[in-house]
Amino acid sequence: MLIKGLQKLTLLDFPGIMACTVFTGGCNFRCPFCHNASLVTHIDDEIVTEEEFFDLLDKRTSILQGVCITGGEPTLQADLYEFIGKIREKGYKVKLDTNGYRPNVLKTLVNDGMLDYVAMDIKNSPARYGETVGIKDFDISPILESVEFLKKGNVDFEFRTTVVRELHNAQDIVAIGEWLRGVPKYFLQGYIDSGDCIENGFNAYEKAEMEGLLSLITPYIPTASLRGL
C-alpha cells in the first residue's frame, strides 16, 4: 500500500467517528484544481510504511474508532482489499473516498462488507465531466455506474462537489441536481487554493454565491448542504 500521508486524528472526515486519515498516492484523473497535486503527480516515494500505520492503530485503540482512506484515488491500489481487511481485523470502521471511476472495486468492497461509509466526488454535470477531470474524450459510464450502485443504499454514503468559479455555473448545479435527485446526502464544497494545485488560476465562490447555488440544488435534493465555508 503506497501511503503518502497520515493525519493521526480527524473529527471531520468520518461523520460521527473519531478517525485517522490515510492518503494514498496516484490518481487516474487530472482535475486541474486538485489541491493534493503531490499525491497525484509525485507517487514514487513512500512517506509512511504500513508497519508504522498499523502501529498507530494498535496504540490508539482508546481514541480512534475508524480510518478514512483517501487520495489520490485509493481504488487504484492493488492491495486495497487486503489493507482494509487488516484494518477491520483490529476493530476499526472504514470510510473510503473515491472518484467512482472503478465501480467494480467499489462494488466488491461494499458487497463484501468491507466499508462502513463511502464519499464519492461528483466532479461536475455529466456534460462537463471530461473538462473538469482534465481528460479529453472522457468516458463517463463508470461514474454513472458507481452513482447508481451507491443510490441502492447498500452502504452509508454521500456525494460531494467542490465548486470552482471557472468550472461550475448555475446550469451545471441544476444538472447535477437532476442527475442525483433524491439522494440522502449531498454537499457543495468551497474550493480552497492549497498552494499544491495541479494548475493555478482557479477561484472560489463567495459564501453568499454558494448559498445561491445551494438553493438551485434543494428542489432536487432537499437535504443538500454547504461544507467548508
Poorly predicted ranges: none
Q: Spatial order of the strands in the main sheet? A: 1-2-3-4-5-6-7-8
CATH A-level architecture: Alpha-Beta Barrel
Please describe the biggest sheet, giving its number of strands, its sense, and whether it closes into a barrel: 8 strands, mixed
Rounded Rg = 17 Å
Number of strands: 8
Straight-line N-to-C gap: 33 Å
- The residue-averaged pLDDT reads 92
Q: How many individual helices?
A: 8
Summarize the structure.
This protein is of the alpha/beta class. The protein has helices at residues 37-41, 50-59, 80-89, 103-111, 129-133, 141-151, 170-180, 207-217; strands at 3-10, 19-24, 66-70, 93-98, 117-121, 156-163, 186-190, 225-227. It has a single domain, classed as Aldolase class I (TIM Barrel).
Account of the 3D structure:
- The protein has 229 residues and is α/β, with parallel strands linked by helices.
- It has a single domain, classed as TIM Barrel (Alpha-Beta Barrel).
- It has helices at 37-41, 50-59, 80-89, 103-111, 129-133, 141-151, 170-180, 207-217, and strands at residues 3-10, 19-24, 66-70, 93-98, 117-121, 156-163, 186-190, 225-227.
- An 8-stranded mixed beta sheet has the order 1-2-3-4-5-6-7-8.
- α4 (103-111) links the parallel β4 (93-98) and β5 (117-121).
- α7 packs parallel to α8 (207-217).
- The radius of gyration is 17 Å and the shape is globular.
